Amino acid sequence: KPTSVDEAEHLKSRIKRKDMLHRLEDALVVYRSLPKVDEERIGAVGIGYGAEVALKFVEHIESDLKCISVFYGLAECEWQALDSHLQCHFAELDYEIPTSRIQQLKTQFHVTNTQSHLSGSAKLRHIHRYEGVTHSFFEDEPSAQYDPEAAQLARNRLLRFLQRTLTDNQERYK
Fold this sequence. Notes:
Blueprint: H1 5-13, H2 17-33, E1 43-47, H3 49-60, E2 67-71, E3 85-91, H4 99-108, E4 115-117, E5 124-130, H5 148-166
Parallel strand pairs: 1-2, 2-3, 3-5
Antiparallel strand pairs: 4-5
């Protein structure tokens, strides 16, 4: 595991994105072949760089996943074209993702508070911003800026989102 931002950036620079996406695609094929897997109920969760990877993967496989939830990570992708339900978690004091970028996403998705349905689409778009916390608030590691209260709120939101999008239980997402 990288122990600093510089080390993480160095490791990221060594990854060949196309190879990684193809490996993830292969893993998804294997996962789908398992007897207890329902192909209609597969989602992805990405944290930090994993969020960037998850977004690029969903775009790469043409939104073959039912939902995606990302924590303080963004990728340049065709956001409007993503056909998956989408949930985003951002820190107010994130040094990588400024508030202006979060506001831009909210405007793009017509999000007034935290959630929106795109016009003409039944796909959910949820954008959550956690006040007073920094990047890595969700990670309980020595090198992270873990915030137990924000992490618990995000965890609860994530679980409700996954329940709503991946199960038959259509309980209202709050």
